[in-house]
Amino acid sequence: VSVLGIGHGNKLLTDLYNCHLTKVYTVGGLFGKATDDFSDTGKLVEKTTFDHITREKLERILAVIQGTNHKALLLHSNIDMKTQEAYELAVKGLIRPMGKSPPIITAIRCLQFTLPEFQLEIHCLHETQQYLRKIVHEIGLELKSSAACTQVRRIRDGVFTLDDALPRTQWNLQSIQNAIGDCQLRVKTEIEKTIGHQDLLHKMDAEMANAADS
Amino acid sequence: EEAAPVFQYAGKAARRKDRVFVWGFCYSGALGVPSFVKPDVGWKKPRRIQATPYRLETEEQISSAACGYGFTLLSSSTTDITKVWGMGLNKDSQLGFQRSRRDRAKGYEYVLEPSPIPLPLEKPQQTRVLQVSCGRAHSLILTDSEGVFTMGNNSYGQCGRKVVEDETYSESHLIHQLKEFDSRVVQVVCGQDHSLFRTKKGAVYACGWGADGQTGLGHYNITSVPTKLHGDIAGVNIIQVSSYGDCCLAVSDEGDVFGWGNSEYLQLASVTETTQVNVPRHLPFKIGKIKEAACGGTGNVVLTEEGNVFVWGYGILGKGPNVIETAVPEMIPPSLFGWSDFNPDIRVAHIRCGLSHFAALTNRGELFVWGKNLRGCLGTGRMEDQYFPWRVTVPGEVVDVACGVDHMVSMVKSF
Fold it and tell me: What is the interface pTM, i.e. ipTM, of the complex?
Protein backbone atom coordinates (compact mmCIF):
# COMPACT_ATOMS: atom_id res chain seq x y z
CA VAL A 1 0.00 0.00 0.00
CA SER A 2 1.52 3.24 -1.09
CA VAL A 3 -0.43 6.47 -0.68
CA LEU A 4 -0.26 9.09 -3.47
CA GLY A 5 -1.70 12.60 -3.33
CA ILE A 6 -2.92 14.54 -6.39
CA GLY A 7 -3.26 18.32 -6.51
CA HIS A 8 -4.92 19.60 -3.35
CA GLY A 9 -4.52 16.16 -1.83
CA ASN A 10 -0.87 16.97 -1.09
CA LYS A 11 -1.94 19.21 1.79
CA LEU A 12 -3.97 16.35 3.20
CA LEU A 13 -0.85 14.22 3.02
CA THR A 14 1.01 16.45 5.48
CA ASP A 15 -2.01 16.44 7.79
CA LEU A 16 -2.16 12.68 7.64
CA TYR A 17 1.55 12.52 8.44
CA ASN A 18 0.97 14.63 11.53
CA CYS A 19 -1.70 12.22 12.70
CA HIS A 20 1.00 9.66 13.37
CA LEU A 21 -1.16 6.69 12.52
CA THR A 22 0.17 3.18 12.62
CA LYS A 23 1.27 1.26 9.56
CA VAL A 24 0.91 -2.51 9.31
CA TYR A 25 3.48 -4.72 7.60
CA THR A 26 3.80 -8.43 6.93
CA VAL A 27 7.43 -9.33 7.40
CA GLY A 28 8.84 -12.67 6.30
CA GLY A 29 11.97 -14.12 7.88
CA LEU A 30 14.30 -17.09 7.52
CA PHE A 31 16.11 -18.74 10.41
CA GLY A 32 19.66 -19.94 10.19
CA LYS A 33 21.39 -17.09 8.43
CA ALA A 34 22.82 -13.78 9.62
CA THR A 35 23.74 -11.17 7.03
CA ASP A 36 25.30 -7.73 7.21
CA ASP A 37 22.23 -5.77 6.07
CA PHE A 38 19.77 -8.12 7.79
CA SER A 39 18.10 -9.26 4.54
CA ASP A 40 18.66 -12.55 2.76
CA THR A 41 20.36 -10.91 -0.22
CA GLY A 42 23.22 -9.45 1.79
CA LYS A 43 26.67 -10.78 2.52
CA LEU A 44 26.62 -13.84 4.77
CA VAL A 45 28.05 -13.29 8.23
CA GLU A 46 27.14 -16.50 10.06
CA LYS A 47 25.09 -19.67 9.77
CA THR A 48 23.51 -21.28 12.83
CA THR A 49 21.29 -24.19 13.76
CA PHE A 50 17.61 -23.54 14.39
CA ASP A 51 16.03 -26.88 15.22
CA HIS A 52 15.52 -25.87 18.86
CA ILE A 53 13.15 -23.03 17.95
CA THR A 54 9.46 -23.62 18.56
CA ARG A 55 6.47 -21.41 17.92
CA GLU A 56 5.98 -21.04 21.67
CA LYS A 57 9.47 -19.59 22.14
CA LEU A 58 8.91 -17.19 19.27
CA GLU A 59 5.64 -15.97 20.76
CA ARG A 60 7.32 -15.40 24.11
CA ILE A 61 9.93 -13.19 22.47
CA LEU A 62 7.20 -11.32 20.59
CA ALA A 63 5.36 -10.70 23.86
CA VAL A 64 8.49 -9.15 25.36
CA ILE A 65 9.07 -6.99 22.29
CA GLN A 66 5.52 -5.74 22.55
CA GLY A 67 5.95 -5.00 26.23
CA THR A 68 9.10 -2.92 25.86
CA ASN A 69 7.69 -1.07 22.88
CA HIS A 70 4.52 -0.30 24.79
CA LYS A 71 6.69 1.26 27.48
CA ALA A 72 8.58 3.29 24.88
CA LEU A 73 5.22 4.42 23.49
CA LEU A 74 4.19 5.85 26.84
CA LEU A 75 7.59 7.41 27.48
CA HIS A 76 7.87 9.23 24.15
CA SER A 77 4.39 10.64 24.18
CA ASN A 78 5.59 13.59 26.27
CA ILE A 79 2.74 13.39 28.74
CA ASP A 80 3.54 13.70 32.43
CA MET A 81 2.83 10.26 33.92
CA LYS A 82 1.59 11.77 37.15
CA THR A 83 -1.53 13.40 35.73
CA GLN A 84 -5.06 12.07 35.60
CA GLU A 85 -5.02 12.77 31.85
CA ALA A 86 -2.14 10.35 31.38
CA TYR A 87 -4.02 7.67 33.33
CA GLU A 88 -7.17 8.03 31.26
CA LEU A 89 -5.30 7.95 27.98
CA ALA A 90 -3.35 4.90 29.09
CA VAL A 91 -6.58 3.09 29.98
CA LYS A 92 -8.08 3.81 26.58
CA GLY A 93 -4.83 2.98 24.84
CA LEU A 94 -4.76 6.32 23.07
CA ILE A 95 -1.32 7.45 24.15
CA ARG A 96 0.77 7.96 21.03
CA PRO A 97 3.88 10.03 20.42
CA MET A 98 2.71 13.08 18.55
CA GLY A 99 6.12 14.34 17.55
CA LYS A 100 9.37 12.88 16.32
CA SER A 101 10.23 9.59 17.99
CA PRO A 102 12.34 6.52 17.30
CA PRO A 103 10.50 3.62 15.63
CA ILE A 104 7.97 2.02 17.97
CA ILE A 105 6.09 -1.21 17.48
CA THR A 106 2.53 -1.11 18.81
CA ALA A 107 1.63 -4.72 18.10
CA ILE A 108 3.36 -7.78 16.71
CA ARG A 109 2.18 -11.32 16.18
CA CYS A 110 3.18 -14.46 14.34
CA LEU A 111 1.08 -15.37 11.34
CA GLN A 112 2.92 -18.41 10.02
CA PHE A 113 5.64 -20.61 11.40
CA THR A 114 7.18 -23.44 9.38
CA LEU A 115 10.84 -23.97 10.14
CA PRO A 116 13.00 -22.35 8.83
CA GLU A 117 10.55 -19.71 7.58
CA PHE A 118 8.19 -17.54 9.59
CA GLN A 119 5.92 -14.57 8.93
CA LEU A 120 5.07 -11.75 11.33
CA GLU A 121 2.46 -9.01 11.29
CA ILE A 122 3.89 -5.79 12.73
CA HIS A 123 1.98 -2.60 13.56
CA CYS A 124 4.41 0.27 13.97
CA LEU A 125 5.03 4.00 14.05
CA HIS A 126 7.85 6.05 12.51
CA GLU A 127 9.61 2.98 11.19
CA THR A 128 12.10 2.44 8.38
CA GLN A 129 12.56 -0.70 6.32
CA GLN A 130 15.98 -1.20 7.87
CA TYR A 131 14.39 -1.14 11.33
CA LEU A 132 11.99 -3.91 10.39
CA ARG A 133 14.80 -6.05 9.03
CA LYS A 134 16.78 -5.35 12.20
CA ILE A 135 13.82 -6.58 14.30
CA VAL A 136 13.90 -9.89 12.41
CA HIS A 137 17.63 -10.14 13.03
CA GLU A 138 17.22 -9.40 16.75
CA ILE A 139 14.47 -12.00 17.10
CA GLY A 140 16.90 -14.51 15.70
CA LEU A 141 19.55 -13.47 18.21
CA GLU A 142 17.15 -13.70 21.15
CA LEU A 143 16.23 -17.25 20.15
CA LYS A 144 19.94 -18.13 20.28
CA SER A 145 20.11 -18.54 16.53
CA SER A 146 20.04 -16.02 13.67
CA ALA A 147 17.45 -14.77 11.21
CA ALA A 148 17.39 -12.78 7.99
CA CYS A 149 14.45 -10.89 6.53
CA THR A 150 13.04 -12.17 3.23
CA GLN A 151 10.00 -9.97 2.63
CA VAL A 152 8.57 -6.66 3.84
CA ARG A 153 5.12 -5.71 2.59
CA ARG A 154 3.03 -2.81 3.80
CA ILE A 155 -0.59 -3.88 4.05
CA ARG A 156 -2.01 -0.83 5.80
CA ASP A 157 -1.03 2.84 5.99
CA GLY A 158 -3.20 4.68 8.48
CA VAL A 159 -6.69 4.43 7.07
CA PHE A 160 -5.76 2.87 3.71
CA THR A 161 -5.84 -0.94 3.66
CA LEU A 162 -5.10 -3.54 0.99
CA ASP A 163 -8.73 -3.50 -0.07
CA ASP A 164 -8.46 0.16 -1.10
CA ALA A 165 -5.33 -0.43 -3.13
CA LEU A 166 -5.61 -0.42 -6.92
CA PRO A 167 -3.85 -3.25 -8.70
CA ARG A 168 -1.82 -2.40 -11.81
CA THR A 169 -4.63 -3.42 -14.16
CA GLN A 170 -6.81 -0.67 -12.73
CA TRP A 171 -4.48 2.29 -13.15
CA ASN A 172 -6.95 4.39 -15.17
CA LEU A 173 -8.75 7.66 -14.50
CA GLN A 174 -12.16 6.20 -13.61
CA SER A 175 -10.93 3.80 -10.94
CA ILE A 176 -8.67 6.49 -9.45
CA GLN A 177 -11.61 8.87 -9.16
CA ASN A 178 -13.73 6.17 -7.50
CA ALA A 179 -10.95 5.35 -5.06
CA ILE A 180 -10.53 9.02 -4.08
CA GLY A 181 -14.26 9.31 -3.50
CA ASP A 182 -14.32 6.20 -1.28
CA CYS A 183 -11.50 7.35 0.95
CA GLN A 184 -12.40 11.01 1.30
CA LEU A 185 -14.75 10.63 4.22
CA ARG A 186 -12.44 8.34 6.19
CA VAL A 187 -9.46 10.64 5.76
CA LYS A 188 -11.49 13.64 6.88
CA THR A 189 -12.80 11.98 10.07
CA GLU A 190 -9.36 10.66 10.97
CA ILE A 191 -7.72 14.07 10.60
CA GLU A 192 -10.47 15.77 12.61
CA LYS A 193 -10.27 13.18 15.36
CA THR A 194 -6.51 13.43 15.80
CA ILE A 195 -5.79 17.08 15.06
CA GLY A 196 -8.86 18.00 17.08
CA HIS A 197 -7.49 15.97 19.99
CA GLN A 198 -4.15 17.67 19.56
CA ASP A 199 -5.84 21.08 19.77
CA LEU A 200 -7.40 19.98 23.04
CA LEU A 201 -3.97 18.99 24.39
CA HIS A 202 -2.49 22.31 23.26
CA LYS A 203 -5.30 24.15 25.03
CA MET A 204 -4.60 22.18 28.21
CA ASP A 205 -0.88 22.97 27.96
CA ALA A 206 -1.68 26.66 27.53
CA GLU A 207 -3.97 26.58 30.56
CA MET A 208 -1.30 24.89 32.67
CA ALA A 209 1.27 27.47 31.56
CA ASN A 210 -1.11 30.26 32.54
CA ALA A 211 -1.77 28.65 35.90
CA ALA A 212 2.00 28.34 36.46
CA ASP A 213 2.56 32.01 35.62
CA SER A 214 -0.18 33.30 37.88
CA GLU B 1 28.27 -19.77 0.85
CA GLU B 2 27.09 -23.33 1.17
CA ALA B 3 30.44 -24.36 2.61
CA ALA B 4 30.25 -21.88 5.49
CA PRO B 5 30.52 -23.48 8.94
CA VAL B 6 27.27 -23.76 10.94
CA PHE B 7 27.38 -22.64 14.58
CA GLN B 8 25.20 -24.12 17.28
CA TYR B 9 24.34 -21.88 20.22
CA ALA B 10 21.57 -23.93 21.74
CA GLY B 11 20.70 -27.56 21.16
CA LYS B 12 17.28 -29.17 21.02
CA ALA B 13 17.40 -30.09 24.70
CA ALA B 14 18.45 -26.63 25.90
CA ARG B 15 16.57 -25.87 29.07
CA ARG B 16 15.48 -22.52 30.45
CA LYS B 17 17.54 -21.36 33.36
CA ASP B 18 16.13 -20.01 36.61
CA ARG B 19 17.46 -16.67 37.67
CA VAL B 20 16.96 -14.22 40.52
CA PHE B 21 16.73 -10.47 39.92
CA VAL B 22 16.88 -7.86 42.68
CA TRP B 23 16.38 -4.10 42.76
CA GLY B 24 15.78 -1.32 45.28
CA PHE B 25 17.72 0.17 48.17
CA CYS B 26 21.28 -1.19 48.41
CA TYR B 27 22.85 0.15 51.60
CA SER B 28 21.00 -2.27 53.88
CA GLY B 29 22.67 -5.14 52.03
CA ALA B 30 19.28 -6.63 51.28
CA LEU B 31 20.08 -6.95 47.57
CA GLY B 32 22.92 -9.37 48.26
CA VAL B 33 25.52 -7.63 46.10
CA PRO B 34 28.43 -6.49 48.32
CA SER B 35 29.87 -4.25 45.61
CA PHE B 36 26.83 -2.00 45.86
CA VAL B 37 27.68 -1.24 49.49
CA LYS B 38 31.46 -1.43 49.78
CA PRO B 39 33.88 -0.60 46.96
CA ASP B 40 35.95 -3.52 45.72
CA VAL B 41 38.30 -4.16 42.82
CA GLY B 42 35.54 -4.94 40.34
CA TRP B 43 33.73 -2.68 37.90
CA LYS B 44 30.57 -2.30 40.00
CA LYS B 45 30.46 1.04 41.83
CA PRO B 46 28.72 1.37 45.19
CA ARG B 47 25.29 2.92 44.77
CA ARG B 48 22.47 3.87 47.07
CA ILE B 49 19.71 2.63 44.81
CA GLN B 50 19.59 -0.04 42.11
CA ALA B 51 16.76 1.30 40.00
CA THR B 52 16.48 -1.50 37.42
CA PRO B 53 16.50 -5.31 37.87
CA TYR B 54 19.99 -6.68 38.53
CA ARG B 55 20.84 -10.35 38.27
CA LEU B 56 21.88 -12.03 41.50
CA GLU B 57 24.08 -15.13 41.21
CA THR B 58 22.87 -17.92 43.49
CA GLU B 59 24.35 -21.33 44.12
CA GLU B 60 21.10 -23.25 43.89
CA GLN B 61 17.79 -22.76 42.16
CA ILE B 62 15.69 -20.53 44.42
CA SER B 63 12.10 -21.65 44.88
CA SER B 64 10.85 -19.12 47.43
CA ALA B 65 11.94 -15.61 48.39
CA ALA B 66 10.68 -13.11 50.93
CA CYS B 67 11.55 -9.47 51.57
CA GLY B 68 11.42 -8.06 55.06
CA TYR B 69 12.09 -4.56 56.32
CA GLY B 70 15.67 -4.21 55.12
CA PHE B 71 16.54 -7.89 54.71
CA THR B 72 15.83 -10.79 52.34
CA LEU B 73 15.51 -14.55 52.66
CA LEU B 74 16.00 -16.95 49.76
CA SER B 75 15.21 -20.64 50.01
CA SER B 76 15.65 -23.61 47.75
CA SER B 77 13.73 -26.90 47.82
CA THR B 78 16.91 -28.91 47.70
CA THR B 79 17.85 -31.76 50.03
CA ASP B 80 21.39 -30.41 50.47
CA ILE B 81 22.47 -29.22 53.91
CA THR B 82 22.15 -25.52 53.02
CA LYS B 83 18.58 -24.65 52.13
CA VAL B 84 18.09 -21.03 53.19
CA TRP B 85 20.22 -17.95 52.53
CA GLY B 86 19.75 -14.54 54.07
CA MET B 87 21.12 -11.06 53.44
CA GLY B 88 20.57 -7.54 54.76
CA LEU B 89 19.88 -6.27 58.24
CA ASN B 90 20.68 -8.73 61.03
CA LYS B 91 20.47 -6.58 64.16
CA ASP B 92 17.77 -8.83 65.65
CA SER B 93 19.21 -12.09 64.33
CA GLN B 94 16.40 -12.29 61.82
CA LEU B 95 18.93 -14.07 59.58
CA GLY B 96 20.13 -16.34 62.36
CA PHE B 97 23.63 -16.12 63.78
CA GLN B 98 26.15 -15.10 61.11
CA ARG B 99 29.57 -15.76 62.59
CA SER B 100 31.98 -12.91 61.92
CA ARG B 101 35.22 -13.94 60.25
CA ARG B 102 37.31 -11.40 62.12
CA ASP B 103 36.09 -12.26 65.61
CA ARG B 104 34.72 -15.80 65.98
CA ALA B 105 32.72 -14.85 69.05
CA LYS B 106 30.76 -12.05 67.44
CA GLY B 107 28.11 -12.01 64.70
CA TYR B 108 27.55 -9.75 61.71
CA GLU B 109 25.04 -6.90 62.02
CA TYR B 110 24.72 -6.44 58.27
CA VAL B 111 25.04 -9.38 55.87
CA LEU B 112 26.03 -8.16 52.43
CA GLU B 113 25.79 -11.32 50.35
CA PRO B 114 23.51 -14.39 50.47
CA SER B 115 24.83 -16.35 53.46
CA PRO B 116 23.58 -19.77 54.53
CA ILE B 117 21.36 -19.93 57.57
CA PRO B 118 21.99 -23.13 59.57
CA LEU B 119 18.70 -24.72 60.64
CA PRO B 120 18.54 -27.24 63.53
CA LEU B 121 16.89 -29.95 61.41
CA GLU B 122 16.53 -33.53 62.62
CA LYS B 123 16.86 -34.95 59.11
CA PRO B 124 18.77 -32.26 57.20
CA GLN B 125 19.16 -34.40 54.09
CA GLN B 126 15.50 -35.29 53.77
CA THR B 127 13.53 -32.27 54.88
CA ARG B 128 12.75 -29.63 52.28
CA VAL B 129 12.07 -25.95 52.87
CA LEU B 130 8.78 -25.02 51.23
CA GLN B 131 8.42 -21.32 51.89
CA VAL B 132 9.97 -18.37 53.76
CA SER B 133 8.41 -15.18 55.04
CA CYS B 134 9.84 -12.02 56.59
CA GLY B 135 8.37 -9.32 58.79
CA ARG B 136 9.85 -6.19 60.32
CA ALA B 137 12.49 -7.93 62.43
CA HIS B 138 11.57 -11.62 62.40
CA SER B 139 11.45 -14.47 59.88
CA LEU B 140 9.53 -17.70 59.46
CA ILE B 141 10.75 -20.76 57.55
CA LEU B 142 8.27 -23.50 56.60
CA THR B 143 9.49 -27.06 56.09
CA ASP B 144 7.55 -30.01 54.77
CA SER B 145 7.98 -32.36 57.73
CA GLU B 146 9.55 -30.50 60.64
CA GLY B 147 7.10 -27.67 61.23
CA VAL B 148 7.97 -23.98 61.22
CA PHE B 149 11.26 -22.40 62.33
CA THR B 150 11.19 -18.85 63.65
CA MET B 151 14.02 -16.45 64.38
CA GLY B 152 14.51 -12.79 65.08
CA ASN B 153 12.86 -10.31 67.35
CA ASN B 154 10.44 -11.76 69.89
CA SER B 155 9.50 -8.73 71.95
CA TYR B 156 5.83 -9.26 71.05
CA GLY B 157 5.89 -13.03 70.87
CA GLN B 158 5.91 -12.99 67.10
CA CYS B 159 8.36 -15.91 67.03
CA GLY B 160 5.84 -18.10 68.81
CA ARG B 161 7.79 -18.44 72.06
CA LYS B 162 7.40 -16.84 75.47
CA VAL B 163 8.63 -13.25 75.71
CA VAL B 164 11.79 -13.06 77.83
CA GLU B 165 12.28 -9.71 79.51
CA ASP B 166 15.40 -7.77 78.52
CA GLU B 167 16.39 -10.38 75.98
CA THR B 168 19.11 -9.20 73.57
CA TYR B 169 18.16 -10.31 70.10
CA SER B 170 21.32 -9.37 68.25
CA GLU B 171 23.95 -12.13 67.86
CA SER B 172 21.47 -14.67 69.22
CA HIS B 173 21.78 -18.33 68.22
CA LEU B 174 18.18 -19.11 69.14
CA ILE B 175 15.99 -20.59 66.39
CA HIS B 176 12.63 -21.76 67.71
CA GLN B 177 10.68 -24.65 66.21
CA LEU B 178 6.86 -24.73 66.15
CA LYS B 179 5.11 -28.04 65.65
CA GLU B 180 1.79 -27.99 67.54
CA PHE B 181 -0.93 -27.21 65.03
CA ASP B 182 -4.11 -29.09 64.15
CA SER B 183 -2.53 -30.31 60.91
CA ARG B 184 0.49 -29.63 58.72
CA VAL B 185 1.24 -25.94 58.15
CA VAL B 186 1.10 -25.07 54.44
CA GLN B 187 1.62 -21.30 54.43
CA VAL B 188 3.38 -18.87 56.77
CA VAL B 189 2.89 -15.13 56.58
CA CYS B 190 4.66 -12.38 58.53
CA GLY B 191 2.98 -9.11 59.30
CA GLN B 192 4.93 -6.22 60.71
CA ASP B 193 5.20 -7.67 64.25
CA HIS B 194 2.92 -10.68 64.10
CA SER B 195 2.88 -14.09 62.41
CA LEU B 196 0.09 -16.02 60.72
CA PHE B 197 0.09 -19.77 60.01
CA ARG B 198 -2.35 -21.51 57.66
CA THR B 199 -2.81 -25.26 58.08
CA LYS B 200 -3.87 -27.96 55.65
CA LYS B 201 -7.28 -28.24 57.29
CA GLY B 202 -8.01 -24.61 56.44
CA ALA B 203 -7.50 -23.11 59.90
CA VAL B 204 -5.48 -19.98 60.65
CA TYR B 205 -3.22 -19.54 63.71
CA ALA B 206 -1.68 -16.28 64.87
CA CYS B 207 0.80 -14.96 67.40
CA GLY B 208 2.57 -11.70 68.07
CA TRP B 209 1.51 -8.10 68.54
CA GLY B 210 -2.20 -7.49 68.73
CA ALA B 211 -2.70 -3.81 69.54
CA ASP B 212 -4.44 -3.31 66.19
CA GLY B 213 -6.28 -6.60 66.42
CA GLN B 214 -4.02 -8.11 63.77
CA THR B 215 -3.85 -11.43 65.62
CA GLY B 216 -7.62 -11.71 65.23
CA LEU B 217 -7.99 -13.53 68.55
CA GLY B 218 -10.63 -11.25 70.05
CA HIS B 219 -8.32 -9.15 72.21
CA TYR B 220 -5.68 -6.45 71.79
CA ASN B 221 -2.88 -8.09 73.82
CA ILE B 222 0.22 -9.86 72.60
CA THR B 223 0.15 -13.62 72.09
CA SER B 224 3.30 -15.66 72.40
CA VAL B 225 1.89 -19.06 71.42
CA PRO B 226 0.22 -19.65 68.04
CA THR B 227 -3.51 -19.73 68.70
CA LYS B 228 -6.34 -20.64 66.37
CA LEU B 229 -8.59 -17.87 64.99
CA HIS B 230 -12.36 -18.03 65.08
CA GLY B 231 -14.83 -15.28 64.26
CA ASP B 232 -16.24 -15.43 60.74
CA ILE B 233 -13.57 -17.92 59.59
CA ALA B 234 -14.46 -20.62 62.13
CA GLY B 235 -15.17 -23.76 60.15
CA VAL B 236 -14.26 -22.13 56.87
CA ASN B 237 -11.61 -23.72 54.67
CA ILE B 238 -9.11 -20.91 54.14
CA ILE B 239 -6.88 -21.36 51.10
CA GLN B 240 -4.73 -18.24 51.32
CA VAL B 241 -3.69 -15.70 53.97
CA SER B 242 -1.86 -12.44 53.43
CA SER B 243 -0.42 -9.64 55.54
CA TYR B 244 2.50 -7.25 55.51
CA GLY B 245 1.63 -4.35 57.79
CA ASP B 246 -1.03 -4.44 60.47
CA CYS B 247 -4.00 -5.59 58.39
CA CYS B 248 -4.70 -9.20 57.37
CA LEU B 249 -6.81 -10.81 54.66
CA ALA B 250 -7.82 -14.45 54.18
CA VAL B 251 -9.45 -16.09 51.15
CA SER B 252 -11.69 -19.14 51.46
CA ASP B 253 -12.12 -21.94 48.96
CA GLU B 254 -15.52 -20.55 47.99
CA GLY B 255 -14.10 -17.20 46.91
CA ASP B 256 -14.99 -15.14 49.99
CA VAL B 257 -12.55 -12.76 51.61
CA PHE B 258 -12.22 -12.13 55.35
CA GLY B 259 -10.29 -9.32 57.01
CA TRP B 260 -9.09 -8.28 60.44
CA GLY B 261 -6.53 -5.96 62.00
CA ASN B 262 -5.87 -2.30 61.33
CA SER B 263 -8.58 -0.39 59.54
CA GLU B 264 -7.33 3.18 59.95
CA TYR B 265 -6.96 3.44 56.18
CA LEU B 266 -10.46 2.20 55.30
CA GLN B 267 -9.21 -1.34 54.66
CA LEU B 268 -12.18 -2.84 56.54
CA ALA B 269 -14.47 0.17 56.41
CA SER B 270 -16.98 -1.77 54.33
CA VAL B 271 -18.08 -3.70 57.41
CA THR B 272 -17.26 -1.46 60.35
CA GLU B 273 -16.42 2.10 61.31
CA THR B 274 -13.99 1.13 64.08
CA THR B 275 -10.33 1.55 63.26
CA GLN B 276 -9.25 -1.78 64.75
CA VAL B 277 -10.97 -5.12 64.17
CA ASN B 278 -9.73 -7.96 66.36
CA VAL B 279 -11.96 -10.76 65.07
CA PRO B 280 -12.02 -11.96 61.45
CA ARG B 281 -14.97 -10.42 59.63
CA HIS B 282 -16.38 -11.43 56.26
CA LEU B 283 -16.07 -8.62 53.69
CA PRO B 284 -19.22 -8.68 51.55
CA PHE B 285 -17.84 -7.55 48.21
CA LYS B 286 -19.94 -8.23 45.12
CA ILE B 287 -17.04 -8.50 42.69
CA GLY B 288 -17.07 -12.22 41.91
CA LYS B 289 -15.20 -15.20 43.29
CA ILE B 290 -11.89 -14.14 44.74
CA LYS B 291 -8.80 -16.18 43.98
CA GLU B 292 -6.00 -14.33 45.75
CA ALA B 293 -5.62 -11.41 48.15
CA ALA B 294 -2.63 -9.31 49.19
CA CYS B 295 -2.29 -6.79 52.01
CA GLY B 296 -0.01 -3.80 52.02
CA GLY B 297 0.64 -1.21 54.66
CA THR B 298 -2.31 1.01 53.79
CA GLY B 299 -3.90 -0.56 50.72
CA ASN B 300 -5.24 -3.99 49.78
CA VAL B 301 -5.63 -5.75 46.47
CA VAL B 302 -7.56 -8.86 45.42
CA LEU B 303 -7.61 -10.92 42.25
CA THR B 304 -10.86 -12.49 41.07
CA GLU B 305 -11.36 -15.75 39.17
CA GLU B 306 -11.88 -13.84 35.92
CA GLY B 307 -8.48 -12.25 36.28
CA ASN B 308 -9.59 -8.77 37.33
CA VAL B 309 -7.67 -6.77 39.91
CA PHE B 310 -9.52 -4.76 42.56
CA VAL B 311 -7.85 -2.29 44.95
CA TRP B 312 -9.03 -0.37 47.99
CA GLY B 313 -7.56 1.40 51.00
CA TYR B 314 -5.41 4.50 51.06
CA GLY B 315 -2.41 5.65 49.08
CA ILE B 316 -1.44 5.28 45.45
CA LEU B 317 -3.91 2.57 44.47
CA GLY B 318 -3.19 2.36 40.75
CA LYS B 319 -6.17 4.19 39.31
CA GLY B 320 -4.48 7.51 38.60
CA PRO B 321 -3.53 10.41 40.87
CA ASN B 322 -7.13 11.24 41.74
CA VAL B 323 -8.02 7.98 43.47
CA ILE B 324 -6.25 8.27 46.81
CA GLU B 325 -8.59 6.44 49.12
CA THR B 326 -11.62 4.20 48.79
CA ALA B 327 -13.38 1.82 51.14
CA VAL B 328 -15.00 -0.22 48.38
CA PRO B 329 -12.87 -2.23 45.91
CA GLU B 330 -12.38 -0.57 42.53
CA MET B 331 -11.28 -2.44 39.46
CA ILE B 332 -8.10 -1.58 37.60
CA PRO B 333 -8.91 -1.63 33.85
CA PRO B 334 -7.33 -4.71 32.23
CA SER B 335 -6.03 -2.59 29.35
CA LEU B 336 -3.38 -1.27 31.74
CA PHE B 337 -1.99 -4.80 32.00
CA GLY B 338 -1.57 -5.16 28.27
CA TRP B 339 -5.04 -6.47 27.44
CA SER B 340 -6.35 -5.21 24.10
CA ASP B 341 -8.28 -6.44 21.06
CA PHE B 342 -4.98 -7.61 19.71
CA ASN B 343 -4.16 -9.60 22.87
CA PRO B 344 -7.48 -10.64 24.36
CA ASP B 345 -6.17 -13.51 26.48
CA ILE B 346 -3.84 -11.62 28.78
CA ARG B 347 -4.86 -12.16 32.40
CA VAL B 348 -3.32 -11.23 35.72
CA ALA B 349 -2.17 -14.45 37.37
CA HIS B 350 -0.77 -13.29 40.74
CA ILE B 351 -0.73 -10.16 42.87
CA ARG B 352 1.71 -9.15 45.57
CA CYS B 353 1.95 -6.23 47.98
CA GLY B 354 4.83 -4.37 49.53
CA LEU B 355 4.44 -1.77 52.23
CA SER B 356 3.37 1.02 49.86
CA HIS B 357 3.50 -0.50 46.41
CA PHE B 358 1.83 -3.32 44.47
CA ALA B 359 2.96 -5.86 41.91
CA ALA B 360 1.01 -7.97 39.44
CA LEU B 361 2.18 -10.91 37.32
CA THR B 362 0.37 -11.73 34.08
CA ASN B 363 -0.02 -15.13 32.50
CA ARG B 364 2.51 -14.08 29.87
CA GLY B 365 5.18 -13.62 32.53
CA GLU B 366 5.18 -9.82 32.58
CA LEU B 367 5.60 -7.88 35.81
CA PHE B 368 3.59 -4.71 36.45
CA VAL B 369 4.25 -2.46 39.45
CA TRP B 370 2.59 0.64 40.82
CA GLY B 371 2.59 2.66 44.03
CA LYS B 372 5.06 4.76 45.93
CA ASN B 373 8.56 4.48 44.55
CA LEU B 374 10.36 4.37 47.87
CA ARG B 375 14.11 4.36 47.20
CA GLY B 376 13.66 2.86 43.78
CA CYS B 377 11.72 -0.20 44.92
CA LEU B 378 9.51 -0.25 41.81
CA GLY B 379 12.37 -1.08 39.48
CA THR B 380 11.10 1.11 36.65
CA GLY B 381 14.42 2.96 36.32
CA ARG B 382 12.81 6.24 37.37
CA MET B 383 12.53 7.75 40.83
CA GLU B 384 8.95 9.01 40.50
CA ASP B 385 5.87 7.36 42.00
CA GLN B 386 3.79 5.35 39.60
CA TYR B 387 0.06 6.06 39.61
CA PHE B 388 -1.00 3.23 37.28
CA PRO B 389 0.44 -0.20 36.46
CA TRP B 390 3.76 0.03 34.65
CA ARG B 391 5.82 -2.76 33.09
CA VAL B 392 9.19 -3.66 34.59
CA THR B 393 11.64 -4.78 31.91
CA VAL B 394 13.07 -8.10 33.06
CA PRO B 395 15.05 -10.29 30.63
CA GLY B 396 12.95 -13.39 31.10
CA GLU B 397 9.54 -14.66 32.13
CA VAL B 398 8.78 -13.60 35.71
CA VAL B 399 7.58 -16.57 37.74
CA ASP B 400 7.25 -15.00 41.19
CA VAL B 401 8.05 -11.75 42.92
CA ALA B 402 8.49 -10.75 46.59
CA CYS B 403 7.90 -7.16 47.65
CA GLY B 404 9.52 -5.48 50.62
CA VAL B 405 9.52 -1.97 51.99
CA ASP B 406 12.21 -0.55 49.72
CA HIS B 407 13.39 -3.48 47.61
CA MET B 408 12.01 -6.36 45.56
CA VAL B 409 13.21 -9.82 44.55
CA SER B 410 11.91 -11.70 41.53
CA MET B 411 12.36 -15.26 40.31
CA VAL B 412 12.62 -15.39 36.55
CA LYS B 413 12.90 -18.12 33.92
CA SER B 414 15.24 -17.18 31.11
CA PHE B 415 14.07 -17.40 27.52
Answer: 0.78
